[in-house]
Specification:
Domain ABC-2 type transporter transmembrane (chain B): 22-364
Strand content of chain B: 5-15%
Largest sheet of chain A: 4 strands, mixed
Oligomer: heterodimer
Transmembrane segments (chain B): 22-42, 179-205, 225-246, 258-282, 294-318, 338-368
Organism (chain B): Sphingomonas pseudosanguinis
Strand order of the largest sheet of chain B: 2-1-3-4
Protein name (chain B): ABC-2 type transport system permease protein
Number of strands of chain B: 5
Shape of chain B: elongated
Shape of chain A: elongated
Radius of gyration of chain A: 27 Å
Structural class of chain B: alpha/beta
Number of domains of chain B: 2
Order of helices and strands of chain B: HHHEHEHEEHEHHHHHHHHH
Order of helices and strands of chain A: HHEHEHEHEHHEHHHHHHHH
Radius of gyration of chain B: 28 Å
Number of domains of chain A: 2
Largest sheet of chain B: 4 strands, mixed
Number of strands of chain A: 5
Strand order of the largest sheet of chain A: 2-1-3-4
Keywords (chain B): Cell membrane, Membrane, Transmembrane, Transmembrane helix
């Protein structure tokens, strides 16, 4: 079979086989909306806080009022002391306790205080705790600054916070804009991986004729095209619909997307040769999704992993994809700034394609 | 009970014969959880790469750079003359953050120009951690210099620090990412794994895309189904316990509440997982479609659990769907025990998890019995 005939037949098989079209097309569509949905609101809002006001001063009352006006937290009540506040937390009625000591106002006015304000945060959800903590600290600082300024005090904020922080490429620090561009690479990888592995495993189950090199290349090209269409659909249409940071370097995407899709397609086809039916391939590949997204360095940097693990992580094309597409789409990286991951994806393509061609020939020879 | 036992023994034998299922219950959890354990072993990300753009070049600028270099969480990878080359390093991920030290920092020459931190926020957890560390280190250096200068009577001694805020982190006092992510990843990975093996187990009972033959030839089909699913619930729980023992005994983290109640939660989570898998196969009578369903229910369950971003401000679909997924309730139960809670929140979540075997499992059994009645 020629490359072209195998290419056309594979495309037709994928698009007319229910199980394959479900994985390669419908899942891509579904996850484009399903995955970002729990992060669409971007930041933590209305997290319940209980207040222990030991000061009972105009300043402490103003602070509690300001807390009630913020988006990040909601004051769910004021209690008399810490045991009562801890009881509210133990009943899961609050995520944090804000305690103002009896000398809160005096400390605030004198500027000496380090014991005026104390926060207890539910740290089990660490990122949430950081968010609540930062939100509460900001309100406390603002309220005190305003109070002091009204009394002719100095411009305290500038003195106390002589450091400005600029988040880049996701300027609001939003969760959807952080998580979805990273996870999109895993969605694109896993859907194409499942489809191409299933395609080959099912072909093996049906005991087809031996696959020669041109036919193997045609199959790989067809799977690559499916992967490319899915990637362009995400980076173009879905990122626009979801209003993600995007479009940083569109011309380079034309080079990067085929490299990524080619590597994933080759990996899927190679993996498929190890299975005797499509369901078995799916069963083994499905549980890898969550570990692969983390191993790609999405929440834990590759530099902080053991070297052997970080090296292994690059064997998953999603790792290269994540560090390639986030740089191009969100950071607006130039070609010279993505050489590393692009090179790795091209290398993976060659290796996995070689394994696929070798394995598919070997399987056929074993059958013969 | 004998039918449950017979189903249990038959399932163990089937798993032994089925290489893929055996791998899924033994080797795969070992590899996947092992890789996560290795990934998180450092406790928290460290050595976050920083570029220094020092426009001052004076003693205070050097002190800032020295203190950043001395911080375990940070590492200086370059010193650059301009922000453009620092930004290029951030875009190519050779750096996470850049610190710009203005000319005359800490003196009147700076004319109020602040030290600026530019950090990438697309890998937010890493970027934000770098920014937090940098801000803490730089603020401490500046305040130390200011106090020293004030003592010498040189610089604006009238500027006053704001009241400090004492922060106590309950349930994770060392703010360890390993403890936080470990608690999410272990159950999250096992949840999907057990959903897949349960689909495989129930799928193996089908003949001609139906359960009629299974129900006809099995004296007590419901008890047999329970027996068939028990090895998967036991395997999930066992791996969950191993993971918790790794985090607690080997790595030294401690829940404020009860570890035993977390283990009870694991049993309930995997029972719920098995029940949902049963319902999926009974409803679709297709292994491949059920596997896709399992991914939708279990594969993205961490995202909907609210463990990284609370769903209080999310849309209606996300909030409702989050409550339908069992992992949400297990995560709440587990994290509550890590922080230490009263009995009622535990009972509430345990009761919700118990509903899955009753409702989803019951519906699955009903569909299977109806298939037999129709046949």
């Amino acid at each position: 079979m020629s490359v072209r005939a195998a290419f056309e037949q594979t495309l037709l098989t994928i698009l007319t086989t229910r199980d394959l079209v479900a994985v390669a097309v419908l899942s891509v569509l579904l996850y484009a909306f399903y995955y970002p949905a729990p992060y669409a609101h971007q930041t933590a809002t209305r997290l319940p806080v209980v207040v222990v006001d030991g000061d009972h001063s105009p300043l402490s009352r103003r602070l509690v009022a300001h807390l009630g006006q913020t988006r990040a937290v909601a004051v769910v009540g004021e209690v008399a002391d810490m045991p009562a506040a801890r009881a509210v937390m133990r009943e899961r009625g609050a995520e944090a306790i804000l305690m103002l000591s009896p000398d809160f106002t005096r400390n605030a006015l004198s500027g000496r205080g380090t014991s005026g304000v104390a926060l207890w945060l539910n740290g089990t959800y660490l990122l949430r705790a950081e968010s609540v903590g930062a939100g509460l600290a900001e309100v406390v600082v603002d309220t005190i600054e305003e109070w002091r300024a009204a009394r002719g005090g100095v411009a305290a904020r500038q003195a106390a916070m002589p450091v400005l922080v600029h988040p880049l490429f996701n300027t609001t620090g939003g969760y959807r804009d952080y998580i979805f561009p990273a996870v999109a690479n895993i969605i694109l990888q896993q859907t194409l991986l499942f489809a191409s592995a299933r395609l080959i495993a099912e072909r093996r189950r049906r005991n087809p004729a031996p696959v020669r090199l041109p036919a193997a290349l045609g199959m790989w090209m067809a799977c690559t095209v499916i992967g490319m269409l899915a990637a362009f659909f995400y980076f173009g249409f879905i990122y626009w619909v979801q209003d993600m940071p995007r479009g940083g370097n569109m011309p380079m995407l034309l080079v990067a997307v085929p490299a990524f899709a080619g590597a994933v397609a080759a990996l899927g086809l190679a993996v498929g040769t190890f299975f005797r039916n499509g369901d078995d391939a799916l069963k083994i590949l499905l549980p890898t999704s969550v570990p692969l997204v983390f191993l790609a360095g999405f929440a834990w940097p590759l530099d902080a992993m053991p070297r052997w693990l970080a090296t292994l992580a690059w064997a998953s094309p999603a790792t290269g994809g994540m560090h390639l597409f986030i740089r191009l789409n969100q950071m607006g990286a130039r070609a010279s700034e993505v050489v590393g991951p692009l090179g790795i994806l091209l290398l993976l393509t060659l290796v996995y394609l070689g394994v696929f061609v070798f394995r598919i020939g070997r399987v056929a020879r074993m059958r013969a | 009970m004998s039918a449950v036992g017979a189903g249990f023994r038959a399932e163990i034998a089937r798993i032994g014969r089925t290489r893929v299922d055996l791998i899924l219950l033994t080797l795969m959890p070992l590899i996947l959880l092992g890789s996560m354990a290795a990934m998180l072993f450092a406790g928290s990300p460290y050595g976050l790469k920083t570029v220094i753009v020092d426009h001052d070049g004076g003693a205070l600028g050097r002190a800032i750079a020295r203190d950043i270099a001395a911080s375990h969480g940070l590492r200086i990878v370059a010193r650059s003359a301009d922000l453009d080359s620092a930004m290029a390093m951030i875009r190519s991920e050779r750096a996470v953050a850049a610190v710009v030290i203005p000319h005359g920092v800490g003196s009147r020459v700076a004319d109020g120009a602040p030290v600026e931190i530019f950090h990438q926020a697309v890998f937010l957890s890493t970027g934000a951690l770098a920014a937090t560390n940098l801000r803490a280190v730089i603020t401490a250096t500046l305040l130390r210099a200011r106090a020293r200068d004030a003592g010498l009577g040189q610089v604006a001694g009238a500027r006053l620090p704001l009241p400090g805020i004492a922060v106590t982190i309950l349930g994770n006092p060392t703010t360890s990412f390993e403890w936080y992510l470990g608690l999410l990843l272990g159950p999250g990975i096992l949840h999907l794994m057990i959903a897949v093996t349960c689909v495989s187990s129930i799928g193996a009972l089908m003949e001609d895309h139906g359960f009629a033959a299974f129900v006809r030839r099995t004296p007590a089909p419901v008890a047999t189904l329970v027996g068939r699913l028990l090895p998967h619930i036991a395997a999930g729980t066992l791996w969950g316990i191993i993971w918790m023992l790794w985090l607690t005994l080997a790595r030294g983290y401690r829940p404020e509440g009860s570890l035993m109640l977390i283990i009870v939660g694991l049993v309930l989570l995997f029972a719920a997982t098995a029940a949902l898998a049963l319902l999926l196969v009974a409803a679709t009578r297709e292994v491949s479609t059920s596997l896709s369903g399992a991914v939708i229910l279990a594969g993205s369950a961490l995202a909907y659990s609210g463990a990284s971003l609370p769903l209080t401000g999310a849309g209606l679909f996300a909030r409702v769907w989050s409550q339908i997924l069992p992992l949400t309730h297990f995560m709440t139960l587990q994290m509550d025990q890590v922080m230490g809670v009263a009995a009622m929140p535990f009972l509430r979540n345990a009761a919700v998890l118990l509903l899955y075997p009753l409702v989803a499992g019951g519906a699955g059994v009903l569909l299977i019995r109806r298939a037999e009645a129709r046949a």
